[in-house]
Amino acid sequence: FFEACSARLNPGGRLALRLRSSENLWTPHLIRRTASIHLALKSVFPEVLILPGVTNIVIASHQPIVHDPRVLADRLRERNIHSRLIIPEYINYLYTNDRFYKIKEILAVEEAPVNSDVRPICYQYAIMIWLSKFFPILAAMDLSGAVMSGSRSYWLLLLLCIPALFLLSRRWPSFRRVLLAGMAGFVGMVLETTLILHYQVKSGVLYQDLGILLMVFMLGLTVGSWSIKEMAKRPHCGRFVTRWMGAAMLVGFCLINILIAWQVDAGYQTGLPTVSFMLMVTGALVGGLFGYVSLHRVEDQVKVVSPLYSADLLGGCIGSVIASLVLIPMAGLVNTAGVMAVLSIVALILL
Fold first, then answer.
1. Residue 150's pLDDT is what?
2. What is the pLDDT of residue 209?
3. Contact 125, 21 (CB under 8 A)
4. What is the pLDDT of residue 246?
5. C-alpha to C-alpha distance for 181 and 291, rounded to whole angstroms
6. What was the pLDDT predicted at 78?
7. Are the C-beta atoms of residues 284 and 223 closer than 8 Å to each other?
8. CA dist 317 to 38, 115, 170, 287, 320, Å?
């Protein structure tokens, strides 16, 4: 986004934006959110200036920015500009108070991840700032540090636990069925979140088309579940073929994640028709996999639908929280899609 703004600026032009802040006390989340955006601006503009207050004024440019309040005050007088707040004395206060210099010191040493379209880390900080109003303990919690501080062996052990759990579940068919339904909800929700955010990043609009995007996903759920039910009725769709249906849908999850990762990494311009189609395919895979686990080797479907539906909802709930707070902000869109692709292949153990 900042690169697009830079390309539109005339020589000597300025980019200015506002960031809601706190005038006297900066919490760790507020510092990291500001630093992540500051670093993103610095990656495009050599000159970045922040004027502190309840709302921070951020100015960026390719040309030197004047820091001397006397020069700015003289310009205000020369151009005969009259306002109720922006007067020479107020300009002098903005550029000389202790907060102005303190912000420079804080941002110079803060090592926050750079915010970007494909790794929107500031989303995580903004959400944590909002949640800390209701749960004050979150004000001191650093999810980024907690995720990054683990050693490689710790994360390797965590990754090995997933296939181990899948293998262990094969001893209990009912639990394996529930786990597969939960996994479908989890991967489907992460995919849906990734696609909608990718569309927002590339198109610059979201809410006017959000109804369409959610509708096509729900349409895909309907088509997927109905298709599996109809296919299961056919005589040639026996046990062997039905198992391959489940495998085909998991491979489909893997392939669509790889496609998303490629599109995001290549900077492909994704429009509404493309994203809508991919969301419908995602919904069809989720609905199809749910239909598969509720029909495959099931004599009485009524007995299994309730736990499977609960597992699907729980998996989707966990997926939405993990995707928005951890995976997408920390790993980025590309790596998130890659992790989901690997998880889809590992889930073949559950068939």
1. 47
2. 84
3. no
4. 82
5. 9
6. 92
7. yes
8. 32, 25, 24, 16, 5
CB atoms within 10 A of CB 19: 17
**pLDDT of the residue at 241:** 47
According to the model, what pLDDT value does residue 146 have? Answer: 52
Query: 20: which 2 tokens?
Result: 């809601």
Residue 56 phi, psi dihedral angles, 5° rounding: -75, 135
- Dihedral of the CA atoms 286, 292, 295, 298 (nearest 10)? -110
Identity at 169, one-letter amino acid code: S
List of the chain residues with pLDDT < 70 = 139-158, 206, 234-241, 269, 298
> Which residue, 252, 239, 222, is CA-closest to 296?
239
The count of other CB atoms within 10 Å of the CB of residue 264 is 24
pLDDT at 113: 86
CA distance 160 to 168: 12
HEC secondary structure over the chain: CHHHHHHHCCCCCEEEEEEECCCCCCCHHHHHHHHHHHHHHHCCCCEEEEECCCEEEEEEECCCCCCCHHHHHHHHHHCCCCCCCCCHHHHHHHHHCHHHHHHHHHHHHCCCCCCCCCCCHHHHHHHHHHHCCCCHHHHHCCHHHHHHHCCHHHHHHHHHHHHHHHHHHCCCHHHHHHHHHHHHHHHHHHHHHHHHHHHHHHHCCCHHHHHHHHHHHHHHHHHHHHHHHHHHHCCCCCHHHHHHHHHHHHHHHHHHHHHHHHHHHHCCCCCHHHHHHHHHHHHHHHHHHHHHHHHCCCCCHHHHHHHHHHHHHHHHHHHHHHHHHHHHHHHHHHHHHHHHHHHHHHHHHHC
For 339, residues 6+ apart whose C-beta sits below 8 A from its C-beta are 327, 331
What residues contact residue 318 under an 8 Å CB cut-off, 6+ apart?
186
